[in-house]
């Protein structure tokens, strides 16, 4: 005899078949949470990698333009970097500006520009037909020191490389007043200021990367340094805080559009994510003992090894001057 099920019995069976236990729900929620966290981390890493890759590509583009311009005009041409800031809207992030500049032919004793240095200064000027490139927010560039006397003051036997970093924040501003339409004059707490130097990759007229142009050597007894005349006023408008340390200037001053600084010739460049560096390296105690030398030494000891391990390097073929990413 066929067994009959009532309508209510069938409904109870279906409900039992469709239901989840509390343990099953918790397991599913846990799996979803783990996957969500993994997805967020993965997206953040991809975003950082894309931003760094974009920065490297823009630096490479500027290097290619500078090398081509040097060959086209048979004139020494360089690529340099400075941090720029929107003074009208301080809430906007600072960014690194990549500038292509060319030798103007002007070689003057340092005294011509009011400097007491026993050297000659070569004046470079931005190439008007090559627009400056802005790197993504948080992407910075550094290079090894090779020229200025600062090396002997801050290096020790156990340091392989003295890095030339750009001026980096934060800086405590106690007063800002605007001077015309350009840069503000400021009063600031120098102990909170961070120092940075100028550096550049220099190409000769045949396209090779050089450390200095032999054609501009005026005297064997005097050094020859380069500066970029950013505002094209035919003057070396030196930053007030250079202090004679290889063109190093304070955080805020290096962002002023009417300030120039000496550029140290770079053998190679590194491009790195400063936001990531600040997660791994303690920035707070650099220069706690005061002075530019102590600051640079502290920064080099902590940030230098991190950059060596984590930054993307750009080297140059010694025969052609072509840039090579990741080459040693």
Q: What separation lies between the terminal Cα atoms? A: 88 Å
Large-scale geometry:
elongated
Q: Fraction of residues in helices?
A: 25-40%
Q: What is the N-to-C order of secondary-structure elements (H for helix, E for strand)?
A: HHEEEEEHEEEEEEEEEEHHEE
- Strands side by side in the biggest sheet: 1-2-3-12-14-10
Oligomer: single chain
Average of per-residue pLDDT values = 76
Biggest sheet character: 6 strands, mixed, barrel
Strand content: 25-35%
Question: How many individual domains?
Answer: 1
Rg estimate, integer Å: 27 Å
Q: How many H/I helices? A: 5
Task: Assign the structural class, choosing from mainly alpha, mainly beta, alpha/beta, alpha+beta, or little secondary structure.
Answer: alpha+beta
Instruction: Please tally the β strands and state the result.
Output: 17
List low-pLDDT spans. Answer: 170-192, 240-246
Describe this structure in words.
This protein has 328 residues and is an alpha+beta fold. It has one domain. It is elongated, with a radius of gyration of 27 Å. A 6-stranded mixed beta barrel has the order 1-2-3-12-14-10. It is 29% helix and 27% strand.
């Amino acid at each position: 005899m066929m067994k009959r099920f009532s309508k209510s019995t069938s409904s109870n069976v279906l409900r039992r078949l469709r239901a989840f236990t509390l343990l099953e729900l918790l397991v599913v929620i846990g799996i979803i949470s783990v996957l969500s966290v993994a997805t967020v981390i993965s997206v953040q890493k991809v975003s950082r990698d894309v931003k760094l890759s974009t920065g490297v590509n823009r630096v490479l583009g500027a290097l290619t333009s500078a090398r081509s311009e040097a060959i086209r005009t048979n004139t020494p041409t360089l690529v340099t970097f400075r941090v720029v800031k929107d003074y009208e809207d301080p809430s906007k992030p600072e960014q690194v500006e990549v500038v292509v500049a060319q030798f103007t032919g002007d070689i003057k004793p340092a005294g011509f520009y009011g400097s007491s240095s026993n050297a000659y200064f070569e004046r470079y000027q931005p190439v008007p037909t090559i627009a400056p490139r802005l790197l993504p927010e948080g992407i910075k560039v550094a290079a090894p020191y090779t020229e200025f006397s600062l090396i002997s003051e801050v290096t020790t036997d156990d340091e392989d490389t003295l890095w030339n970093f750009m001026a980096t924040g934060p800086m405590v501003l106690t007063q800002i007043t605007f001077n015309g339409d350009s840069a503000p004059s400021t009063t600031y707490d120098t102990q909170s200021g961070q120092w940075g130097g100028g550096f550049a990759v220099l190409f000769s007229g045949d396209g090779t990367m050089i450390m200095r142009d032999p054609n501009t050597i005026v005297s064997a007894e005097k050094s020859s340094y380069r500066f970029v005349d950013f505002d094209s006023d035919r003057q070396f408008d030196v930053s007030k805080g250079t202090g004679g340390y290889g063109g190093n200037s304070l955080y805020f001053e290096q962002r002023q559009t009417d300030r120039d600084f000496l550029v140290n010739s770079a053998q190679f460049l590194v491009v790195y994510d400063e936001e990531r560096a600040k997660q791994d390296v303690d920035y707070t105690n650099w220069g706690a003992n005061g002075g530019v030398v102590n600051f640079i030494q502290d920064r080099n000891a902590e940030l230098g090894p991190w950059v060596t391990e984590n930054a993307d390097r750009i080297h140059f073929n010694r025969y052609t001057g072509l840039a090579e990413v990741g080459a040693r």
